[in-house]
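Question (not urgent): is this output format expected?
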Amino acid sequence: MGSVPTMELSEAVRRRRMTRSFSEASLDGTVVDGLLAEALAAPSAGNTQGREFVVLDSPAQTGRYWLATTDADWRARSRRFQGLSRAPVVVLPFSDPDAYVRRYAEPDKARPDGDEVEWVVPYWHVDASFAVMSLLLGAVDRGVGAAFLGNFRGEGALKEALGVPARMRWLGAVLLGHPALPDPPSPSATRPRRTMDESVHRGGW
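Got this back:
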């Protein structure tokens, strides 16, 4: 499904960046399907697989995403909106907390004392994040531009517009398409990258 990956993983990791300006050219559906298949092969706690995608791949469909998650004032003043909104495909990852509660009540995962698992870490979001990273790296491998946009507003409106069940939690959006110029880097890109010594603690903190 889709083109066969050819890039070394280390190269894909080094080359990965967020595309913030897309052309209006369509994206081959088989490429999108290949990316989604790889994303769904990402690790999943208890093999619960409680992450699902809504794929929007026409201007009418992607427009529903932008209308639900932005307002007219933001669209008018954002210097990146035009470039971002041209992305021909928007993939919306959702996680299903209830699926993990059910899975970890099954005999091979249930606690011996019968108590319900305390979800100190919400693994439904972790699994959805694993899938998103696989999607982003797969896009690099295929020469496809990609950007992840966080969920800051409009989750309820978006779910209502797309008919997403109330139990599902929205993680954000992955925009896919062909990069276009100009594509000015984010100001965040000027922040210095922390070194190995600053970030890695060997044998303890």
